[in-house]
Design goal:
DNA polymerase, domain 1, Rossmann fold, six-stranded parallel beta sheet, 45% helix, alpha/beta
């Protein structure tokens, strides 16, 4: 069954943001005596919403200020403006995909739109942007994927999700959708293919140039 709707995660799938964002977040957390490296932060929190990350950090006895996310977004925007790039080949892939494309991300709407503006991807998604801010339960719950697809009356198996994190893959599977695992971001280590496979991705790839053919073949 060839998919009719393609739902993309944002960070690490559309934009190469994970290393930048982890560096900024780990530095800010260290300012509040939560000592964690960017690498360790990725291993523990990849794919989670910022509200969930803050909840987990504070559960360890760390008090973060109410404006923590505001300060973080300000620093992210400065770094993204100077460093953020689209995933190689993604513009060409999006131009060639005939299906409807949506974004379902753990990031905020503001972060997604800023990332798209910075990398020139806004034209491909327009209003088809869905965030963990819009649902009660973030990934690994299926809520954001179900929200993205709620107006598309089709078999869940006709919806394909492109993800780079375990929590994202689990959320898509819980929504009854097929998932391809992508490991072409600069944050992906040598064992990332195993990580994605163990999480439940049905197909794994690292070149966006392959995506259109994979969708057509559903393989």
């Amino acid at each position: 069954m060839v998919p009719k709707l393609i739902i993309f995660d944002c960070d690490g799938v559309l934009v190469d943001s994970e290393i930048i964002a982890n560096r900024i977040l780990s530095k800010l957390l260290r300012e509040y005596n939560y000592n964690i490296s960017a690498t360790d932060l990725q291993q523990r929190f990849l794919g989670l919403s910022m509200s969930k990350i803050i909840e987990m950090v504070e559960s360890e006895g760390i008090t973060l200020p109410k404006d923590f996310q505001i300060v973080l977004r300000r620093r992210d925007k400065i770094a993204f403006k100077n460093e953020l790039k689209p995933i190689p080949g993604i513009s060409s892939a999006l131009s060639s995909i005939k299906q409807t494309v949506y974004v379902a991300s753990s990031g905020s709407i503001d972060k997604i739109k800023h990332s798209f503006f910075t990398t020139g991807l806004s034209q491909f998604f327009k209003k088809n942007i869905f965030s963990a801010e819009m649902v009660k339960n973030p990934k690994p719950a299926p809520d954001v994927f179900l929200l993205a697809a709620q107006n598309m009356k089709m078999d869940p198996k006709e919806r394909l999700v492109i993800e780079d994190s375990k929590v994202g893959i689990l959320g898509a599977l819980a929504a009854g959708m097929k998932v391809f695992g992508f490991y072409g971001g600069s944050h992906c280590h040598k064992d990332y293919q195993i990580y994605l496979k163990n999480a439940g991705a049905m197909n794994i790839f690292n070149k966006m140039e392959k995506l259109t053919e994979m969708i057509s073949n559903n393989q």
